[in-house]
Amino acid sequence: MQGTTSTSGGVPAFHVHPGHAFEGFELVDRPNTTPILVARCQCGDVLDVAEARFATCPECDGRGCARCGDTGRIVDHAALEWRVAPSNP
Ligand SMILES: [Zn+2]
Ligand SMILES: [Zn+2]
Question: What is the pTM of this model?
Fold first, then answer.
């Protein structure tokens, strides 16, 4: 299938393998590197990656709450720029 990437709700369609389910997002935040978000397939493969962008948590104004996991920040999904993960590095 090809064509335009339709976005609804700010989350693009990820390149999930045919017949596989979309597993979810994972934040990879290591020291001295830019935090990235990865979109994972059911089988464990990384589908797409995006530089993580954060917004101040609207629920607690940065003090920490259940929504942001006491970090005071949430992933700003609208600001993410997803790209296909480099395969076979
Ligand atoms: Zn898969
Ligand atoms: Zn919060």
Answer: 0.72
